[in-house]
């Protein structure tokens, strides 16, 4: 609240003291006013008995300021209350005899001041202290267009916020998308750097030596090892390779040994599988590719790859591999190498054919441009047949059992490693005569205390496997198993033909060792009288089809099983009776039985053949002898 003090006195008007001044009349008694308002001092004329002018003084004191006013004289005063500056709550003080006196000039006689109290804030501008003059009305504020203006400002602010947010998300999403692609390529590049732990674990599992000294001590060097070393280190370019051979011949071990020599630099290897989803996962692990499973671009409204089949994911991984090969081509000077092991595990169906076709297309393209060399390893011949249809740059490497000299040397090294025992030449040749040069068999025999018993056990296992799959049931078999017996009889006929062919060939060579009898594939199909059975027999490791399409027993123990089975008493008669029973069942299936009815009283049918058009059947009725003859 502001307090206005108007003082009517007879003395000359007092000039308002300066509150900022450090000097103040010490003779005046003072009063302290502490208020949040201001006090105005103005000079106004006042009436008095001496016709002297009365001066009204108003002092302005700012908020929080302190001002010392002269205390009014003890002249009797009259208090009149007014509101506001001129209202009912203001107090008017004046002398009783100054109400009707005309204004006069100020004199030296002291006059009683009039004091006004107001609750309204005082104005900084000078105004006259007249009770009749009304206060000026406040000016209206200019707010006619404030609402549309505020709406426009709010809309502009919202639009700017949305625009900034959208631009921020777009920029962040684009930056993340580009950064993610670069990270994917870097991760795949690291997959071909030396020291891959996956390859080290595979080498340990395959019992590949970890240092050259250990390799010289017990590692068996195959004749194909030198070429595989050139393929794996990238020296041999312009082709992709298919390694074909029976299981246990050392194909995977040679590949891992070649990788060990270069510490896996520029090489990636994974195992195939019948399920394409598992193939996808294994390929991603080998290439360090996540198939965009860790992609979070959707938070930035960036659309990621669609969820599709495993075959399309494999295609995406190969696309990334091609980019990595192109980027690293200038620095490496050699192509990258991708090895797919156990290709025979892929199913021989439409999905498997699509996968093989996809891989072969990439292999052909990369071999022509020297970007990536792909190596396929398989046990079965049907994989070669699939590749052969579209192959232009494919080379086939056939891996077979070790020759006699190398097999005996391998067995001697294995025996020294496991038992520190040096075997005699006679013992080594006896073992080789039983199991041949198959590395898996030689390793198993070398770990056994009784090697001869283990060799016989291996031969018995192979014989049991063959009999469980292909044994024939004879003349008493049921017609429901005819389809399976056709397959079994064909296998037995081929096994007997291989055993019988031993009479016309030499089965032993001083340098090579065992020479197993074989037939060309078309000749084997002719012997079995079926063309669709031999591939399934190859998958079951009953027979094997070499890269040159020669059909023979899958191993030396399996051929010994053929010899034992065919040498059994009555086997040939049993086989002939089984084949005859199959023919009879098929004949019954092709025969139609006609039953003649209503042949009474000597009636009969007359069947006349009418050339090539068919036959005519005519009913001839018998003689009617009557009922009481």
Total of DSSP H or I helical runs spanning 4+ residues: 19
The main pleated sheet reads as: 5 strands, parallel
Straight-line N-to-C gap? 158 Å
**CATH homology-level superfamily of the largest domain:** P-loop containing nucleotide triphosphate hydrolases
Pfam family, one: WHD_AAA_fung
InterPro entries: AAA_16, HTH_AAA, P-loop_NTPase
Keywords: Membrane, Transmembrane, Transmembrane helix
Ordered list of secondary-structure elements with their pairings:
Elements: E1 30-34, E2 66-70, E3 78-82, E4 90-94, H1 146-190, H2 197-205, H3 212-218, H4 225-232, E5 240-245, H5 251-261, E6 267-271, H6 276-287, H7 310-327, H8 329-332, E7 336-341, H9 350-369, E8 372-378, H10 381-390, E9 394-399, H11 404-419, H12 425-435, H13 439-446, H14 451-470, H15 482-500, E10 508-509, E11 513-514, E12 518-520, H16 521-528, H17 534-539, E13 543-545, E14 550-553, H18 556-566, H19 571-590, E15 604-609, E16 615-620
Parallel strand pairs: 5-8, 5-9, 6-7, 7-8
Antiparallel strand pairs: 1-2, 3-4, 10-11, 12-14, 13-14, 15-16
Helix pairs in contact: 1-7, 2-5, 4-5, 6-7, 7-9, 9-10, 11-12, 11-13, 12-14, 13-14, 14-18, 15-18, 15-19
